[in-house]
Task: structure prediction
Amino acid sequence: MKKIFWLALLGALLAIQLIRPDMTNPPVNQAQDFRQVMQTPAGVQSILEAACYDCHSNETQYPWYSQVAPVSWWVADHINEGREALNFSTFGALNAEDRAEALEESAEKVQEGEMPLDSYTWMHPEAKLSAAQRDVLIKWLNANSGEGAEKGGEEADTKAAAEHEEED
Ligand code: HEC
Result:
């Protein structure tokens, strides 16, 4: 009885390998990528690439286990949903408002510890952000989303005021 169970399980695991989600990356146009559009400082960009690009870009790197069903189905779902929510590879296609919103939300998600997803950092310890890395990332995101001008210190306020004067 026991043997039949294990054979059946093995058979099922082999059979589900036939259902393969599409794991090819869409083509990348570097001119539209976040790093090009935002001229991200290297320190910030390297954090995003290590912690976010696998799910939020068209430059996903698939480890071997991500090719094995049922993990592959789960990984593909995360990547599809992640790209839909925010895709750094096509950032240049967003208008100014959507860009600002994406930066603001990213800062929030990192601040709240929701991104990168825990299930991801278990398998990718290099994506786990240190307090210092989070700080660098959040500061830069906020400074570039316009949040800095609303909430931020004197410098941002003076700059906003100066810009305002120019308009008048
Ligand atoms: C393992 C895949 C994965 C990683 C890694 C990851 N995300 Fe996500 N992210 C998702 C998924 C899936 C969603 C959509 C569902 C949700 O909101 O939980 C999402 C949603 C978001 C959203 C919300 C967008 C919206 O419209 O609400 C933001 C912002 C975001 N991620 C930023 C980041 C940032 C910044 C990083 C890196 C620090 C990151 N994510 C790392 C999978 C990932």
In short: The chain has a mean pLDDT of 90. Residues 51-52, 54-56, 78, 81-82, 85-86, 105-106, 109-110, 115-117, 120 surround heme C (CB under 6 Å). Residues 96-111 form the longest helix (16 residues).
